[in-house]
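Onboarding guide, step 5: your first structure request.
Type a short instruction followed by the sequence, for example:

Predict the 3D structure of this protein.
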Amino acid sequence: MTAPGYFVSFEGGDGGGKTTQARLLAEWIGEVTGREVVVTREPGGTPLGAELRRAVLHGDDMDPRTEALLYAADRAHHVASLVRPALERGAVVITDRYIDSSVAYQAGGRELGEDEVESISRWAVEGLMPDVTVLLDVDSATSAARLTGEPDRLERAGEDFHRRTREAYLRRAAAEPGRWVVIDAAGTVEDVQAQIRVDLAARLDLTPVVEEATDSDVAAGVAEDV
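The system replies with structure tokens like these:
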């Protein structure tokens, strides 16, 4: 693959549907472009990340700075061992959470310094940022209603924590509209995915490929009718 890779991150509070929407987007991009698509997540996208995920989400309580540093350590390893090599070979990488999660949760939710948290994370990944970040925005009531199973450490953090986290996401999206796509995630899975595809096709220069694929489908349908 000679074309450069594309890096897409999904962000938002719990219950927004990030995992489902990332998977559906990956399937669609693979189908319409024929490119390799790598779907991953933070924390937990590597074997080491899986161990760190258990520690930060299901382990003992820890102070906010320790939590932020563990996320940064996972991100450094994740990018060096998985994300950057995939991008260098021309793949589309779609990650469920990235740097913006740390800023929203540890700076917004935990009330650490936003500049400090972002600096640590950017240093950990040598400045690598997504081409596009999709924010699946849901209010606290919708988020709570969608959660199932035993809540993890972050899900148990309380309504004020999650309000601050959402506000931090929206501030970041407003400050950098060239990178962010904000989607109202309260709709159906199908409606949300349709909006993501429209926005991503334009942002990642996939429109000609998508139109060509659509025209081919139409032509095939006409041939079958004949």
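Each response can be followed by summary notes, for example: The first strand starts at residue 6 and ends at 11.
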